[in-house]
Amino acid sequence: MKNLKKVELSQLSDIKVDYYFGASEEIEILVIKYSGKYAYGSVGDTDAIYMNAMGRAAMEAWDPGAVIIDLQDLHYEWGDMLEYAFNISTDDTLPLAVIVGLGCEEAVRTLLLGVDSKESIDKIGWIFKDLETAWNYIRKGSE
């Protein structure tokens, strides 16, 4: 037999993922909550790959009408691939919102708006600072 080495997706990252499901009127919303420390710079590439894989698996398993990615408990300072964790659907019309917290807000802002940007993260219409605002954004977009 060949030398096979057992591997698991969880070996890619120390990021923890939790899933929650809820409904707003006629749309089912999947909340994917990531927590932990995203490794700095390109070392974090495997964190982004893991987050993308876990998000895609959830999409396949539950086929939600909308997704909220919750990063409130994620510590992220820098790494170009975090945005890959947001690209979990092939449906460009799927409503998506992202929630940031103190441990990642500034880094997400510079990732999406540019390092030299002075613009507020609020300029990005689908990034929010709490679940209620993100939920309302999804709900209004599905009306």
Description:
Helix content is about 25%, strand content about 25%. By secondary structure, the protein is an alpha/beta fold. It has a 5-stranded mixed sheet, sandwiched between helices. The mean pLDDT is about 95.
For the sheet with most strands, the description reads: 5 strands, mixed
| Structural class estimated from helices and strands | alpha/beta
Spatial shape? globular
Radius of gyration, in angstroms, nearest whole number = 16 Å
Strand order of the largest sheet: 1-2-3-4-5
In round numbers, the mean pLDDT is 93
Q: Count the DSSP helices.
A: 3
Total DSSP E strands: 5
Q: Name the beta content range.
A: 25-35%
What low-confidence regions span 5 or more consecutive residues with pLDDT below 50? none
Q: Helix coverage percent of residues?
A: 25-40%
The run of helices and strands is EEHEEHEH
The end-to-end distance, rounded to whole angstroms, is 57 Å
What can be said about this structure in brief?
This protein has helices at 45-62, 105-113, 131-141, and strands at residues 16-24, 27-37, 66-75, 96-100, 127-128. The chain is α/β, with parallel strands linked by helices and 143 residues long.
Question: What is the element layout, followed by pairings?
Answer:
Elements: E1 16-24, E2 27-37, H1 45-62, E3 66-75, E4 96-100, H2 105-113, E5 127-128, H3 131-141
Parallel strand pairs: 2-3, 3-4, 4-5
Antiparallel strand pairs: 1-2
Short descriptors:
single chain, 143 residues, alpha/beta, five-stranded mixed sheet, 3 helices, 27% helix, 26% strand, globular
